[in-house]
Design brief:
Length: 479
């Protein structure tokens, strides 16, 4: 006889796919017999449900006796009518209830002296309206309509492109507006900074000095200084009275992607690919702080006069609030799932918005409470955004899309598409930077087709020609 070892057959190892199919088959064998079957009825819940239906549907019948007494003036008829209405309500309730149901709870009848025109209360505590000749035919007519808590958007005129400015020889990557609202400057991949007249769009000055593309610009409100930053790791301070560089801030280990000026202090903030937001003293060129904590490129930044004085967004999908006194993180927002490439602070409210490829989100300052998402998704990489005092938020995409939003409601009221200029590829339709002028009536976009475009509201538009097509979200919890 063969031994026990010879009698055993070799066992083949089972693959993960085969084991998954086995588990699925066992689950189907276990749960498929009960699939599609309803749970057994609960008598108590059925009794409460029918009682509510009876009171909601036939509660008005109780006051018919009062109307008959006013019309006929016969008190005897009132009692008979009350008994008749009660019996009719019971008959209707019996027709509704199930065969196994034995009792139905009905609201008590009002006293004989009660005015029939006054509203009475049902068993569930809801107010039953007085009887009328036209009684409601369904329970939906008696249910209180709760209005949507979502704010209705204000009407805004659509924006249109009215001017195209050419002059740069590379992608236009950054923009800053003069505090006097008379000129603006743009930085480009052609390594130059150009200053343009805001009214006539004429070129006034060209500044050279960077050796790589210029990604950030800022004009000081307190001094005659212009600050620029680029991929050459340099941060420069230009004196606009002499039109030359008077200071350079050294310290970044890689390209500088964004910069901002403190509104009340002589401080400059820069962020770049080294994942650090650096704080500089404008006068002494000394680095006050190196705000570390991000795990990837710091690509967006804005400042405030009060805490949090600095807010940064990064490719690591987080937004950080910084304490300038201690040089540490105050809070970290992790609501986004992709890179936060742009942020916009509202000029009047204590709120700001941040943009990512997943969505545009609004937050409340100073704590950073999440308010809501915008009601549409641009579904592209958003490079820049800005908001004016009228509550018009604009976001610019990598595919040349320019979307306009109502700030309070998050309603997207216009979707524009930039037109690539002749001589450029269709893939060069991206918008890299944008800004409103100080009045908020003109919008300037910097684009990949080497042009600068200016936008304004359509003066011929009216609420009749461009109505608001708004539907509040069904699931408010998502927002």
């Amino acid at each position: 006889m063969p031994g026990p070892a010879a009698a055993m057959e070799p066992v083949e190892p089972q693959s993960l796919k085969k084991l998954s199919f086995k588990s699925l088959k066992r689950a189907l064998d276990l749960f498929s017999p009960t699939h599609g079957h309803y749970p057994p009825p609960d008598p108590e819940s059925q009794r409460i449900r029918i009682s509510y239906k009876v009171n909601a549907e036939y509660g008005a019948v109780k006051n018919l006796a009062g109307e008959q007494s006013q019309e006929q003036g016969n008190h005897a008829t009132v009692g008979q009518g009350g008994q008749t209405s009660k019996s009719s309500a019971l008959v209707l309730a019996d027709s509704l209830k199930d065969g196994n149901q034995n009792s139905v709870v009905l609201a008590p009848l009002p006293p004989k002296g009660m005015d029939a025109n006054l509203p009475s209360r049902g068993a569930a505590g809801s107010v039953v309206p007085p009887a009328s000749t036209e009684r409601p035919q369904s329970t939906s007519a008696l249910v209180e309509r709760i209005p949507s808590r979502w704010p209705r958007p204000e009407w805004h005129a659509p924006w249109k492109n009215y001017r195209v400015i050419s002059g740069h020889l590379g992608w236009v990557r950054s923009i800053a507006i003069d505090p006097s609202n008379s000129w603006f400057c743009t930085g480009s991949a052609d390594r130059t900074i150009k200053i343009w007249d805001l009214a006539s769009a004429q070129l006034k000055l060209t500044l050279t000095g960077h050796i790589e593309q210029i990604r950030g610009l800022a004009v000081s409100r307190r001094h005659t200084y212009l600050f620029s930053a680029g991929d050459d790791k340099l941060v420069k301070c230009w004196d606009l009275e002499q039109n030359k560089v008077i200071r350079s801030y050294h310290g970044h280990l890689s390209g500088v992607y964004c910069l901002a000026l403190h509104p009340t202090l002589d401080l400059l903030f820069t962020g770049g690919r080294d994942s650090v937001c650096r704080v500089w003293d404008i006068r002494t060129k000394a680095m006050v702080f190196a705000l570390t904590g991000h795990d990837n490129t710091v690509c967006s930044i804005f400042t405030r006069p009060v805490d949090p004085q600095v807010v940064t967004g990064s490719h690591d999908t987080t937004i950080k609030f910084w304490d300038l006194t201690a040089g540490k993180t105050m809070a970290t927002l992790t609501h986004h799932k992709k890179s936060v490439r742009a942020m916009a602070l509202h000029p009047q409210e204590q709120t700001f918005a941040s943009a990512s490829a997943d969505n545009v989100k609004k937050f409340r300052l100073p704590r950073g409470e999440f308010l809501h998402n915008m009601l549409s998704q641009q579904k592209t990489i958003i490079n820049a955004m800005s908001v004016n005092e009228d509550g018009v938020l604009v976001t610019a995409g990598d595919n040349g899309s320019l979307w306009f939003w109502d700030w309070n409601s998050g309603h997207n009221f216009q979707q524009a598409q930039t037109i690539v200029q002749p001589g450029s590829l269709d893939s060069e339709a991206g918008i890299y930077a944008l800004a409103y002028d100080l009045t908020g009536s003109r919008l300037i976009t910097c684009e990949a087709d080497k042009t600068i475009k200016m936008w304004k509201e359509d003066p011929t538009a009216t609420p009749e020609t461009h109505p608001i097509n708004f539907k509040p979200p069904k699931d408010i919890r998502r927002y």
